[in-house]
Fold these 2 entries.
Entry 1:
Amino acid sequence: MERWFHCTCGYALVLEEGGSVTCPHCGKRHGAPERRLLSVTEVAERLGVNPITVHRWCERGLVPEATREQHGRRHSWRIPEDSVAHIRRPRPGRRRKRA
Ligand SMILES: [Zn+2]
């Protein structure tokens, strides 16, 4: 069974089940067919928090394997789906000290 997915560089790749593939575009190696990359907004929706909060967690290195993406002068983050459960949230619960 084959599976299409996108490399962190945006290149579309086919990965055979249980196999691995190297991206011809950026050279990154992939071996996890289930791994999807989520945007900050998608992660925020899943966790029920503000996207700005998720962005800040990425900046602080609290999100495992988050990948920085540059868009001109701005940047955003790509977060592997399976990293969402492992985010080291600084404050569990809803309380926010600084907005
Ligand atoms: Zn790539």
Note: The first strand starts at residue 2 and ends at 6.
Entry 2:
Amino acid sequence: MDKGKGQAGSTARLAKHIEKDERYKLCPSCGNFADFNSNEIYCILCGTRLLDACPECRSPIYYPTAKFCPACGEKYNRQ
Ligand SMILES: [Zn+2]
Ligand SMILES: [Zn+2]
């Protein structure tokens, strides 16, 4: 029995580039953050309304620890 007929099954897994879809909401007051898809509207720590985008250019917030908008340089914490 010759079973040497291996198909060239090169399952080259295309490493699909995961789109950076993670977004966050930031508290402009105390720096707390929440997942963008959470239904939190206000900061659970200080009650300030969370930013779901840059207040200046409306760029999405991709970094939960960001203090400034990477697109326009606007400070998120505008008091
Ligand atoms: Zn807060
Ligand atoms: Zn901005």
Note: The chain has a mean pLDDT of 84.
